[in-house]
Amino acid sequence: MLPQSVLSLWEAIRTANEGPELLLDPDLKLWALIPISIVMILVGVAKQCIMVLVSPKSKTVPRVKLTEILYITKARVLLGNGSNLSSESFQMRQEYLAQVLSEGKYLAIKPNENEKAKIENPFTNSSMTDAMTSMAMGNLVNYIPQTIIMWWVNYFFAGFVLMRLPFPLTIRFKQMLQSSVMTDDLDVRWVSSMSWYIISMGGLTPVYNILLGGSNLDKLDVSAQQQQLSQIPGGPSPQDQMKSLANDITVFQHVSVLDDIEDRVLKLYS
């Protein structure tokens, strides 16, 4: 057992490190914490609705183009996850994909030996124009509300200490959690109004997913759009990608995780 004087000294040091205790007005939660949280949620929902309205409508992808994209994706997936297949299954897929990719069987646009490839101007490509417009509108929709809300919080709630976190933190979090509070000896667990706004910006994504139903984008449509956007001047064409993947699949050295799995399991649990 430690002497009472040592315990008292330890308690004094611990209290000094934690900083002074604050008695918060209960009305702060009603007039500051809850309004900031509600405004953040409403503004986030409004931004999502505006983005849906101003975003360009998804264009249908021709079947031949979608087939081309899927076969390129299938070859990449086989190279990345082929170790999960048995040797027979991998060899069957290896021979088939190497043949169809090298022949260019599923190319959307068949190559013409007598015609030179034409370089398309990216500014005349409708897909590139829509993507650039959507990106600019997204940045604008995000920037304007954040600027207005930051001014509103900084003007009406500057210097407010709203809550105390129930878990300890290191001193490095002090600048983030106690923004606009000019104190040096305050415990890092106390959170100011401006810091609560900054934390809410990155922590309300699950709430938006619940209110808006999450992301409903079609994976195939996203893959097709990414494939179209990747066709910029100087980039590899689908024909070059298929030939490169066919060569990679042909020379790929397959090692299956299923080889000798019975012996390894018996050795592990024996």
TrEMBL record:
Superkingdom to which the source organism belongs: Eukaryota
Keywords, comma-separated and alphabetical: Membrane, Transmembrane, Transmembrane helix
Recorded GO CC terms: EMC complex
Presence of keyword Cell cycle: no
SMART domains, per the entry: DUF106 (SM01415)
GO BP: any one term: protein folding in endoplasmic reticulum
Family, as annotated: Belongs to the EMC3 family.
Pfam family, one: EMC3_TMCO1
Membrane topology according to the record: Multi-pass membrane protein
InterPro entries given in the database record: EMC3, EMC3/TMCO1
Functional summary from the UniProt entry: The EMC seems to be required for efficient folding of proteins in the endoplasmic reticulum (ER).
PANTHER family for this protein: ER MEMBRANE PROTEIN COMPLEX SUBUNIT 3 (PTHR13116:SF5)
Transmembrane segments: 30-54, 148-167, 194-212
Signal peptide, first to last residue: none
Subcellular location: Endoplasmic reticulum membrane; Membrane
Protein name: ER membrane protein complex subunit 3
